[in-house]
Amino acid sequence: AQKVTQAQTEISVVEKEDVTLDCVYETRDTTYYLFWYKQPPSGELVFLIRRNSFDEQNEISGRYSWNFQKSTSSFNFTITASQVVDSAVYFCALSTPWAGNNRKLIWGLGTSLAVNP
Amino acid sequence: DAGITQSPRHKVTETGTPVTLRCHQTENHRYMYWYRQDPGHGLRLIHYSYGVKDTDKGEVSDGYSVSRSKTEDFLLTLESATSSQTSVYFCAISSNPNANEKLFFGSGTQLSVL
């Protein structure tokens, strides 16, 4: 079975704190892709990052960083020095190759992050 | 920002009435998707399209139909709306169906079925 678990339903931090959003996935496929999307209060989901199963190199983009560990099946997302604009719901998703025209994207339930001034 | 427009943004309707939601894109992407978002369920795929007049079912397609007569438009129809279809509906597009391809989303339609 394929599954994505975001155990943290809601997180509340004070501005400038660092915060880590956890994502644990399950799949038997050896080739797969992991994604993070952000859903701000305005509603639309915005792509943040993707990582393939063969690339465990961590990635940093400004205040955002991602830690991919196959040994623990985790793809965690850290925001350093959080800001109020980071307040959003963050989704982790898993995608595996699927024959034909479709592809199956398995979504976590999301973590709602509130950054308070 | 990807050019995806969903209409209407909000709609209130009564049980048993048909409802059509529209997704319009200006990116000329071949692949389009309809998702619904519900608390406790995350995002679930309703239907998708891989080209003009080519559509297929997702995981929660019962009670929904879709049509795609032009590359830029993907319509979602609730044939006879029920209260269980109260949800936020998102349209998404991608340039290819590959597992590594990211999706671009519209702003969503909040539908309430009374």
Largest sheet of chain A: 6 strands, mixed
* Residue share in helix of chain A: under 10%
Topology as H/E string of chain B? Answer: EEEEEEEEEEE
> Over all CA atoms, what is the radius of gyration of chain B?
13 Å
Gross morphology of chain B is globular
* Average pLDDT score of chain B: 93
Largest interface, per-chain counts?
A: A-B, 26 and 26 residues
What fraction of residues of chain B sit in β-strands?
over 45%
**Through-space gap between termini of chain B:** 34 Å
Q: Number of DSSP strands of chain A?
A: 12
Structural class of chain A: mainly beta
Using only C-alpha atoms, the radius of gyration of chain A works out to 14 Å
Shape of chain A: globular
Question: Tally the helices of chain A: what do you get?
Answer: 0
Instruction: Please trace the helix and strand order of chain A, writing H or E for each element.
Output: EEEEEEEEEEEE
Brief write-up:
The complex is a heterodimer of chains A (117) and B (114). Chain A is an all-beta fold.
What does this entry look like structurally?
Chain A contains no helices and twelve strands. In chain A, strand 8 and strand 9 form a beta hairpin. The mean pLDDT of chain A is 91. Helices cover 0% and strands 57% of the residues of chain B. In chain B, strands 2, 4, 5, 6, 9, 10 and 11 form a seven-stranded mixed beta sheet that branches. The model of chain B has no long low-confidence stretch (mean pLDDT 93). Classes of the chains: A mainly beta (117), B mainly beta (114). The interface between A and B is medium-sized, with 26 and 26 residues.
